[in-house]
Write a structure and sequence with these properties.
Blueprint lengths: L1 E14 L3 E8 L3 E7 L18 E7 L7 E10 L2 H4 L2 H16 L8 H16 L5 H12 L16 H6 L12 H19 L4 H10 L4
Parallel strand pairs: 3-5
Antiparallel strand pairs: 1-2, 1-4, 2-3, 4-5
């Protein structure tokens, strides 16, 4: 069966010599593993559509006999080029993508989560704020049923509700307070790890950039 689905790539890895296997969060079908055949060849098509944090419209072949959907076409809705040109913003985008990948199961659609991710990626592109990864994570764990709204660190108590509620682009109005932001991220990180049983790669990569010991 051939279907069209709007989605965002959460992660990807090579599969064999020329293929890629991407995890795509689609609005209609939820999280799907999608095989992109031959994209690592020099003339491979659809390569850009298989990159993390790309929002696209995907044409997929879905079969009950295969564990993967197969990408057979599509077009990019947004690749967020300014975000990709800034390491801090790209790490923030990958953090959001990894959080969604870890905290959702396959084939369980949630249009709210899809729209949430697109909105935060757009904010990282157009109205970047250092609070965006924390705000995304807080909203995602709340949607997953184990939110942190009532567990604000003391340093974040005055604006914790705003991190849960205001439009992503409006977070640029919130003054950056690095110590408070790190306290919030540490709480989120520990909370997510307790739910998933393993650390987030994006947080570990951020630590390595800052020289934090493993």
């Amino acid at each position: 069966m051939i279907v069209n689905a709007e989605g965002v790539v959460l992660s990807r890895r090579n599969l064999g010599e020329y293929d890629r296997l991407a995890v795509v969060y689609t609005e209609t079908f939820g999280k799907l593993p999608v095989r992109f055949v031959g994209v690592n060849r020099p003339a491979g098509k659809l390569k850009a559509l298989s990159e993390p944090a790309v929002w696209g419209e995907y044409r997929l072949h879905v079969s009950p006999r295969s564990e993967f959907a197969k990408a057979v076409g599509g077009r990019i809705q947004a690749s967020f080029p300014d975000l990709r040109g800034d390491l801090d913003r790209m790490v923030a985008a990958l953090t959001c993508c990894e959080l969604l990948e870890r905290l959702t199961v396959e084939h369980d659609p949630s249009p709210i989560k899809h729209r949430l991710l697109v909105a935060f990626l757009a904010a990282l592109e157009e109205s970047p704020s250092p609070w965006l990864p924390l705000a995304f994570g807080l909203r995602l764990v709340e949607l997953a049923g184990f939110g942190l709204r009532e567990r604000a660190p003391a340093s974040c108590a005055g604006f914790w509700s705003r991190l849960h509620e205001v439009e992503p682009a409006a977070l640029t109005l919130l003054e950056d307070q690095p110590a408070a932001r790190e306290a919030g991220l540490r709480l989120l990180r520990e909370h997510v790890q307790s739910q998933t049983g393993r650390p987030l790669r994006a947080f570990e990569f951020s630590d390595s950039l800052m020289g934090v010991p493993a």
